[in-house]
């Protein structure tokens, strides 16, 4: 465990890039072999806005990383935060708790708030307005959303008290986990269900991408499914019944246009309708 944390404490940017590109490539290839939905789309054309948003997400996170490092150092020096207030525990448990709680504050809570606060929903809408959910959808976040998510992560690091090694470990796990949950790959329903007891499974997250409420407002989790189960936001529907997108923003052409997507958060508020 110590070796793992030592690695993540100083993980080079090149290794993070390899993880990002390697992950997309792996799932992209798998999508060609075992697709879940046979999309009639031009894969590269569809990927253009999504990869653009992936790039802006990287740039924003890279530019603000210093704040994370500073906060992680501060909590360590001051012995501040939930995991530091608990009794002494083995390192593996300390890291696991850190990752679990960061997943709550930095991802689940951020995502929940984005669905409930009107202007934030309009920003997060860009992620939901993809009609062809695949591995490139994972980081289809408007730049404003990247700032919002960063703020929640920063707050998470502060309140959880995670050292930078655990922050970088969490971010690396989160990167691959979201590529996996968005990937347009078909696994057996049984395997998917077993995964969903612990982690967010591809089918579980696809339900969140259904075009109508109440499903849009369910399964907010990022890596672990425990938060949806604790807070009662877990929902299930058959993968065959899932329709991607948001019913109140049905224009597929606009939803695939980078120019339009950049302006989408400034559109008048519309929430999805209920089934
Ligand atoms: Zn969402």
TrEMBL record:
Pfam families: FA_hydroxylase. Its main location: membrane. The chain crosses the membrane at residues 18-39, 51-75, 91-113, 150-170. It is found in: Endomembrane system. Residues 99-233 form the Fatty acid hydroxylase domain. The keyword Signal does not apply. It is a multi-pass membrane protein. InterPro entries: Fatty_acid_hydroxylase, Sterol_desaturase/TMEM195. Keywords: Lipid metabolism, Membrane, Oxidoreductase, Transmembrane, Transmembrane helix. PANTHER family: ALKYLGLYCEROL MONOOXYGENASE, STEROL DESATURASE-RELATED PROTEIN. This is Sterol desaturase family protein. It comes from Mesoflavibacter profundi.
